[in-house]
């Protein structure tokens, strides 16, 4: 499938009291450009193509209040529906531009990882409140954004100690992605790793979210399904 995408300049409709919005235009299989339709009533200030694999498109949509939501397209890339609210997104001239991350990143990015070797599995970072690691949560989908769920932390650490971190107690596992790597450049935080040649195996750096598990950084290994993590080694 061919999905060349382009943006038109911000435009304001005559007689409208809403701020200017940008419009995403899509061409499917080299056909004439058509305006993409997003199921939202909020003005849109920016689009970011987060992923265009598996015959669908994930697009980060930034609204006037700097809230960014993740939308997924139909197979022609023309109609988009909401998949995940408040996804972590950075733009040098928009979302997150007033944070320290602006000193380390000069291009936009979203904390969204496609798990290679398995269709429909993605890991994203959810932001709840101000942009700080205390407010970040990793979520995973197994059906290309139809449903998302938090990650269960390991039941034990690499030394055999019990880890008391349960989802029903408000504790979950957070995996470092692009934002955490850039913001904590002095720490050895590797990105989420997955390969087509090793389907079902995921390596990542993570820590706990919640009042039961300290944010100690660990190298984690996950087998399919990737909700349940193992802790093969603890970083110094």
From TrEMBL:
PANTHER family referenced in this protein's UniProt entry, alphabetically: SORTILIN RELATED (PTHR12106), SORTILIN-RELATED RECEPTOR (PTHR12106:SF27)
Basic and acidic residues composition-biased segments: 226-236
Keyword Zinc tagged: no
Organism annotation: Characodon lateralis
Annotated stretches, region: Disordered: 208-236
Domain Sortilin N-terminal: from-to ranges: 17-215
Protein name, entry field: Sortilin- receptor
Keywords: Receptor, Repeat
